[in-house]
Structures are given as C-alpha cells and as structure tokens.
Amino acid sequence: MYKFIGPLFLILISAGLFFSYIDPTYQKIGGLQEKEKQYNEALNKSKELRMIRDQLLSKYNTFSAEDVNNLEKLLPDNVDNVRLIMEIDNLASKYGVVIRKADIAKSLPDDEKETLGPKIGDFDSITLDFLIEAPYANFTQFLNDLTNGLRMVDVANLSFQSSELDFYKYRLGVRTYWLK
C-alpha cells in the first residue's frame, strides 16, 4: 500500500504545483511575449516614421526661406482674422478704397448647407464680409489684387448700390482658407 501512496502523493503535489504556480507563470510569460511583439512592431514603425520624417525634412530644407514664407502666406496653418483684415485694409488704402465695416460670417455658406455627411479635408474656411465705398475703377483694381494676391481668397458674394457719382457702395464677401 505504501508503494502506491508515495507516487500518488508526488503526482498530487506536482499537479497542485502545476496549477498553482507553473500554469499562471506560463500565462504571464505568454502575455509578456505578446506585449514584446507589439512593442517591437511599434519600434519598427517609429523607425520607418523617422526615416520618412528625415526625408521630408531634407526636402523642406531645400526650399528657400522666402518660398516657405510665401507658402505659409498662401495657406496658413491657422486663421488670424485680425491680420487678414489688416492686410485687406492695407491693400484697400493702396487704391483709395474705404472699408466701412468688416464682419466674420457666422452661418455656413449656401454651397456647404446642402452637403451631406461630415466635412472631409485638411483645410477649413471662413467668410469675411466687408462694406466698401470706392469708385468703380479703384474697386476693380482692388478686387483684382485681392483675388490674385498671395493669400488664397475666393469671392463668395458681391453686391453693390449705385449712386449719381462715380462712388459706389459694395458688399463684398470673401472666403479664405487655412490648414487644420
């Protein structure tokens, strides 16, 4: 009978040891190995991203400072309403155009109201409305310089009120863009 109790006791101890210590430790090791794989994948991805960043940075450094400044002016990375209105006012004063009022349009433009789904893109826009007084010739020169200038500006709406003199009142809405 003692012949069977010794081996049975060892089998019970080994089963208890397996279920209480070996199996949980083995499960932890498996989880740690999975985390190690994820970390190695993330490390490899970060190395690829560093290489791409370095390539893009070397391309960026080939541009002159003036070209970079012009590009930032064409499509800025933020909207600075005050600076934009000041630039438009300086351009207006060049042609003797008087800006009476400048407003930021709060509502969506008509072409965006009918859009279904989310707005997709890497840029956003804002519409600025101006009340302007100027002779027709000066206004056309101002409008030409405004739309053909370095800053990306689209004319969203334009209306005018005539008068006896060659001095008209215009309501001009321009849309400008910036990167998100």
Descriptive overview:
- The protein is an alpha+beta fold and 180 residues long.
- It has 2 domains: 1-62; 76-179, Alpha-Beta Plaits (2-Layer Sandwich).
- The chain is built from 5 helices and 4 strands; from the N terminus they run H-H-H-E-H-E-H-E-E.
- It has helices at 2-61, 65-74, 81-94, 110-113, 136-148; strands at 98-104, 123-134, 153-161, 168-179.
- Strands 1-2-4-3 form a 4-stranded antiparallel beta sheet.
- A hairpin with a 6-residue loop joins strand 3 (153-161) and strand 4 (168-179).
- Helix 3 (81-94) crosses helix 5.
- The radius of gyration is 34 Å and the shape is rod-shaped.
- The N and C termini lie far apart (83 Å).
- The model has no long low-confidence stretch (mean pLDDT 84).
In short:
This protein has 180 residues and is α+β, with helices and mostly antiparallel strands. Helix content is 56%, strand content 22%.
SSE order? HHHEHEHEE
Average pLDDT:
84
Please report the total strand number as a whole number. Answer: 4
Query: In CATH's first tier, which class of the largest domain applies?
Result: Alpha Beta
- Beta strand %: 15-25%
Count of separate structural domains: 2
Low-confidence stretches: none
Helix content: 55-70%
Question: Multimeric state of these chains?
Answer: single chain
State the CATH architecture of the largest domain.
2-Layer Sandwich
Q: Measure the end-to-end span.
A: 83 Å
Tell me about the largest β-sheet: 4 strands, antiparallel
Derived structural class: alpha+beta
| Cα Rg | 34 Å
Strand order across the biggest sheet? Answer: 1-2-4-3
Based on Cα principal axes, name the global outline. Answer: rod-shaped
